[in-house]
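From the methods appendix. Each design record in this collection lists the tokenized structure first, followed by the designed amino acid sequence. Records were kept in a plain field format so they could be parsed without special tools. The example shown here is representative of the layout used throughout.

RECORD:
FOLD TOKENS (115 positions):
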């Protein structure tokens, strides 16, 4: 998958099959929860969260795509105190090749309340 194309280890490029998620770059914040497209860049997410008095434990490069950041561990300067980016993931929607949307992961309300 190619979201931001940013990877210090060079894992953002492949000789194999690549899914380009560049059109998926929206972010919205409501009730303390951000809904973020796979290609939304960290800088845009951070700016949107800041408008609501929120922050995300994430890296420092504003150009990295959120899908890669989250799947890659989401290491950042707030990590020791607040955990990694995927520690704050409360749900995922994926779209399969047949264009059907699936929600394979949704955190329990108890987990969401603890975050």
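DESIGN:
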């Amino acid at each position: 998958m190619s979201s931001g194309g940013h990877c210090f280890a060079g894992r953002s490029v492949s000789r194999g099959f690549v899914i380009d998620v560049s059109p998926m770059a929206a972010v919205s914040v409501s009730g303390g929860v951000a809904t973020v497209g796979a290609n939304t860049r960290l800088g845009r997410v951070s700016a949107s969260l800041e408008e609501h008095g929120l922050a995300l434990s994430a890296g420092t490069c504003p150009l990295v795509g959120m899908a890669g950041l989250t799947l890659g561990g989401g290491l950042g300067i707030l990590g020791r105190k607040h955990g990694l980016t995927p520690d704050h993931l409360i749900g995922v929607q994926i779209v399969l090749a047949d264009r059907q949307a699936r929600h394979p992961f949704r955190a329990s309300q108890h987990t969401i309340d603890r975050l």
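APPENDIX NOTE: The longest helix spans residues 42-51.
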